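pinning this so it doesn't scroll away 📌
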Amino acid sequence: MTVYGFHASHEQVPPADLLAAAVRAESAGFTAAMCSDHFSPWSVRQGESGFAWSWLGAALQATDHVPFG
């Protein structure tokens, strides 16, 4: 079975925006989600770096059935 997943790039987007995007991805039919876990952004242009583990808890609470990894 093919799985279509959503990738949350913490180094590029603020955590609250990623959470809203994960909820929209589930509504759009994505069947999985994952996120990056970086200590800091790769460059100055990538000025975000949310804490992946606490974000995953929020994402699991905000969605109904999408597995996260």
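📌 and the second one:
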Amino acid sequence: MTALFIQKVGVYGPRLMHDVGLPGIDAAAVFGNVGHECAGFTAYHEGGQPSRKGGVSWCQWTNDRRHLFEAWCRQHGLALTSDAAGYSFLVHELTGSEAGAVAAMRRHSTLEAKVAAFEAEFERARVKAISRRVVWARLALSALHPGHPATAAPPKPARRKPIADKHRGHH
């Protein structure tokens, strides 16, 4: 699952950076959300939903956006399940109706904040699952920019032993 994700980010990440004008960290935030939505490019259709309902493709487009995605594919002669369909519609939205998601990411500096901003403006998911989206985003960033500091999980705070109070218990 992660090998497929890394491979596709390696192909489509630089294209997204070019086509939408995103820095690598923003492209990683986008792919973090995409990775969560489509299980690292392994799920075309939202699990547990009838075939005519639920989300589809890279971003699990639902309702009106699903209909727009399907119409886009028909208009451009693209197979619904193709990467070309998922990628081109993503770019179409990010440079059009969903450009606010790009602006929202630009207002933040950390990968985590960019992931959350993209989710809020673009995905608008019922279940946010930001921590899982961030894991995918770190993986995407490591594919786009190996060694980038944001690819590492933040360190856990060190557990400190309480300092013994020398005066405690002495009267």
